[in-house]
Design brief:
The protein has 162 residues and is of the alpha+beta class. 55% of the residues lie in helices and 20% in strands. It is built from six helices and five strands, in the order H-H-H-E-H-E-E-H-E-E-H. A hairpin with a 2-residue loop joins strand 2 and strand 3. It is elongated and about 70 Å long. It starts with a helix and ends in a 7-residue tail after the last helix.
Length: 162
């Protein structure tokens, strides 16, 4: 539950900063009348639509951990035999192995910019389950990595077996 609240607060801060950046851009590009950013922000948020905007931001932040993270299962993968393919799929999307924990491989994003883009929620956990692996983490990374790993496993059938 603590992790859920932290993720929600991070997302609320992220969309608030994004909104402030958009308001600042709007105030800078106003040609007819130069308006201060804070005056524009006050005018927007003190209306009924501004109130609904705040409610929408809070609602998005509250539900973000539910739809922003996922677990994907890729069949036919073994951590022992397909470690190179798994590492290649992770490297393709900018992740590197940082260790193992309770039988699961832990990957993190490479570089500060990539980690910041993921709001430091860049931990991808790969655990072996019956008949495959389970990839757990932020939705957009897990979906891409799962698809890529599945393609690597599918294409491995055509490799020369010696």
């Amino acid at each position: 539950m603590k992790r859920y609240i932290i993720r929600s607060l991070k997302y609320l801060v992220f969309i608030s900063v994004l909104y402030l950046a958009l308001v600042w851009l709007m105030s800078m590009t106003s040609y007819s009348v130069k308006v201060d950013m804070w005056t524009l922000l006050e005018a927007q948020l003190c209306s009924d639509k501004g109130l609904w905007l705040v409610v929408a931001f809070v609602a998005l932040a509250v539900f973000y951990p539910r739809f922003g993270f996922m677990t994907s299962r890729v069949e036919g993968v073994s951590l022992e035999h397909d470690k190179v393919r798994l590492d290649n799929a992770m490297r393709l999307y900018g992740f590197e192995e940082v260790g193992a924990e309770d039988g699961a491989l832990i990957y993190r994003a490479k570089g500060m910019v990539k980690r910041l883009m993921f709001m430091y929620e860049d931990r991808i956990e790969v655990r072996e389950v019956d008949g495959g692996v389970e990839i757990k983490g932020i939705r957009r990374a897990v979906a891409r990595i799962g698809y890529q790993l599945g393609a690597y496993i599918h294409n491995s059938r055509f490799e020369d077996k010696e």
